[in-house]
Amino acid sequence: MSTSKTRETHPAPEALLKLVKFDDRGLVPAIAQDHRNGDVLMMAWMNRAALSETLRSGQVCYWSRSRGTLWRKGETSGQVQHLKDLRIDCDGDTLLLRVAQTGVTCHTGRRSCFYRALRGGEIEDILPVERDPRDLYGG
Amino acid sequence: MSTSKTRETHPAPEALLKLVKFDDRGLVPAIAQDHRNGDVLMMAWMNRAALSETLRSGQVCYWSRSRGTLWRKGETSGQVQHLKDLRIDCDGDTLLLRVAQTGVTCHTGRRSCFYRALRGGEIEDILPVERDPRDLYGG
Fold first, then answer.
1. Nearest CA distance, A72 vs chain B (angstrom)
2. Which end of chain A is more exposed for a tag (fewer CB within 10 A), N or C?
3. A31-67, pLDDT tens digit by residue?
4. How far, CA to CA in Å, does B41 sit from each of A110, B32, B33, B115?
């Protein structure tokens, strides 16, 4: 598409940015999936700046809706996500990030944020705490 | 939690409904994942009624934001999703549905809606069309 333009080392992702349908808040949901075993790790949001930074740096950056700032995943905890592959759905309104997760994804110290399952009408924790959150966040 | 109440065959998912944080539109994002191989198939939205129906029937029902109605996945196409397991994330604001997908998920006839990947700065289709959409929707 941009064959006549000068290529950067990390090309500007115009082809992707054109496809993404950001919502009326300027956000798009991004699902992070472990690229090795397919585990769904978390879902968060990106704005255009977060997506651009992620593609430029190769390290996943979300938009924190609660703080209203870019959220460089792992900046405090060291539990960063390296982007291995990025996919977009048929409607262009959801992203799937295939990532290499350093350590654990969840602030509770679990591998995935989806650690609670409905079993027999009750909620069960199905993943162990692998890291002490106090070690991750200096609490 | 509801041990003193009469148990239904499919117990009312009070334990789950209490945890879910619906957004200001009354919706929660739901990620559908193939329970056999971990493929992420789609992301859509549920309101309380869609979630309740899904749990009651065992067949996934979303909320269509464009049509403003319950969206019984596969009602037209026959490509239904049977719920095998339901998980909720640490914040309670995203659901992960582990499903058995009949046929294909995507209205384009592909196995997953995430069939476009960013490769070398360009977008590539990485999944084949397995079903003719005209067969699925009688077009």
1. 18
2. C
3. 999 999 999 999 999 999 999 999 999 999 999 999 9
4. 24, 6, 5, 9
ipTM score for this prediction: 0.91
Q: What is the pTM of this model?
A: 0.91
- List CB contacts (< 8 A) between B2 and chain A: 121
Asked if the Cβ–Cβ distance from B87 to A16 is below 8 Å, we say: no
Residue A88 exposed, middle or buried by CB count within 10 Å (0-12, 13-18, 19+): buried
Question: Going along chain B, which residue ranges are E strands?
Answer: 28-34, 40-46, 61-64, 69-72, 81-88, 95-101, 116-119, 122-125
> What is the distance between the alpha carbons of residues B11 and B58, in angstroms, rounded to a whole number?
12
Task: Give A38's contacts in chain B (Cβ within 8 Å).
Answer: 33, 37-40
| Tens digit of each residue's pLDDT (9 = 90 or more) over B82-97 | 999 999 999 999 999 9
| Tokens 């490509």 belong to residue | B79
